[in-house]
Structures are given as structure tokens and as C-alpha cells.
Amino acid sequence: MKTILSLILIMALSLVSLGCNRSSGDSNEARNDGAPSPEMAKYLLASEPEGAQEVIAVRESAKDDEDVTIVGRIGGSANPWVEGRAAFSIVDPSLKACNDIPGDACEKPWDYCCETDKLPGATALVKVVDENGEVLKADARQSLKLDELQTVVVRGKAKRDAEGNLTVLANSLYVRK
Q1: 41-175: CATH homologous superfamily?
Q2: Nearest-CA neighbor of 116 among 134, 97, 99, 131?
Q3: Per the count of CB atoms within 10 A, which of 40, 70, 118, 125 is most buried?
């Protein structure tokens, strides 16, 4: 887990050297239309759970194994997905993705390369887990029909590592439209 978060942070920091002002063909519009896979649909909520807190607030207050409801946008690096797993990183909604900045034409606005200095304290890793606490072996993009910069509300248990990184072991999530 620590290795995954470290890789995410390294990828985010490396984007600073690439700059944000590249030509753009992407936007934050959902591109992954369609229904989720039948086995993954049970993890998607039909309505938004109440009491969600933003990523920074949960990072500051949640204790290990505490039940949390957290809201964030999928992103934080050029590739916020964990390949082959229902896992991805989310960023506090208070941070601006590059496409939220007028005139910025960043090619991958979900990497938040314009807010890189704020990412370490504003990111959480979400792992969708089964009833045994095992991360589901399914690509979140395909099985849950998720895309970068979508806002998700996630319910689950907080897990902290020694560096204070936050992982949410999610038992359900809601995708804001």
C-alpha cells in the first residue's frame, strides 16, 4: 500500500517538470458510458450517502479502522488507477484540476499538475473490497464505469500507514452526475 501511494506521489511530482500547458483534447466529461459489470453493480449506490467529508478533512481526522464517508475527484496523477484492481486515487474537491483553470490546456487535467504542491495532503487511495476485505480484481474504469475527474462519494474503513497516508477500504460508492 505504501509503495502504491509513493508511486502515485512520484508520478504526480514528475508531472511538474512536464508542465501543464500542453494541447488538450480531453475534458472532464464522462467518457466511460454504459452499465457497470453485474458483479460490480452491487457496490454502486443509487443515492448519495449523507455526511460525506472531503479528503483533506478525513485525512486530518480519521483514525485507523474508522468508518468514513469521503468525497473526492478521481485523479492525482497521470494514471490514478491501479491496474487490474478496483482501486484508484481521489483528490480533495477544493483543489483545481488543470481544466478548472481558465486558459490552461493541460492534456491530462486529472493529474492536478497545477496543484502538485498540495497533492500530498489532499489525496486518498480508494480500494473497493469484498466482504473479506480483499481488493476486487477488476479494473475500476471498466467494471464500475469510472473516469478521471468524476466525483465519487465513498463509504468504507479508513486505513492509515506510518507516513499518514490514507486508504479507504470501500464497501460502496456513489458517482455524482
Answers
A1: Bacterial OB-fold (2.40.50.200)
A2: 97
A3: 70
